[in-house]
């Protein structure tokens, strides 16, 4: 891993290789970027899956966090769709959970989280066990989704 890649990873930002990015686009993820002075400083994607839109790959450069970049991106994505949006993240990523909660997302109960992760994502059991799902608008019933 290059020095730059390890620096990004150590700050909680994931480097996406070109082949990974291409695979995500082929799978239907549509990416939106936030530029400042000609530099890409934030990116967020959505993927339509069945009856919801998933937020995928939400990243903001560490030095630019807390300055409205993520808020602008999520606001733009919400304006593009009237469908329910879901986001999955690590349960330990409390900063991400707080961000989504500030933007109208609600953390779902563990049983609902497990059901949704199995329905809308392709991830392993270990990741299911350590993840949470947030929804906007929130579900009104544990039996509501698909």
Topology, pairings included?
Layout: H1 3-10, H2 18-26, E1 29-36, E2 39-49, E3 52-60, H3 69-80, E4 84-90, H4 94-102, E5 106-107, H5 110-120, H6 125-129, E6 131-136
Q: Which descriptors apply to this entry?
A:
alpha+beta; 6 strands; disordered N terminus
Helix count? 6
Uncertain runs: 1-11
Tally of strands? 6
User: Helix content range of the residues, please?
Assistant: 25-40%
- Summed over residues and divided by their number, the pLDDT gives a mean of 85
- Beta-strand content estimate: 25-35%
Describe this structure in words.
There is one protein chain. The protein is an alpha+beta fold. Helices cover 37% and strands 29% of the residues. It contains six helices and six strands. The protein has a six-stranded mixed β-sheet, sandwiched between helices. A hairpin with a 2-residue loop joins β1 and β2. The radius of gyration is 15 Å and the shape is globular. It starts with a helix and ends in a 10-residue tail after the last strand. Residues 1-11 have low confidence and may be disordered.
Question: Outline of this structure?
Answer:
By secondary structure, the protein is of the alpha+beta class. It is built from six helices and six strands.
């Amino acid at each position: 891993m290059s020095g730059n890649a390890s620096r990004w990873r150590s700050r909680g930002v994931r480097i996406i290789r070109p082949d990974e990015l291409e695979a995500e686009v082929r799978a239907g993820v549509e990416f939106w970027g936030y530029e400042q002075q000609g530099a890409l400083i934030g990116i967020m994607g959505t993927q339509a899956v069945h009856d919801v839109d998933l937020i995928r790959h939400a990243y903001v450069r560490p030095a630019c966090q807390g300055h409205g970049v993520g808020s602008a991106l999520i606001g733009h994505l919400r304006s593009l769709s009237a469908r329910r949006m879901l986001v999955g993240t690590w349960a330990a990523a409390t900063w991400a959970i707080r961000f989504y909660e500030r933007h109208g997302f609600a953390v779902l109960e563990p049983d609902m989280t497990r059901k949704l992760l199995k329905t809308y994502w392709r991830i392993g059991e270990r990741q299911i066990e350590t993840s949470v799902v947030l929804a906007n608008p929130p579900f009104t019933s544990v039996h509501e989704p698909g």
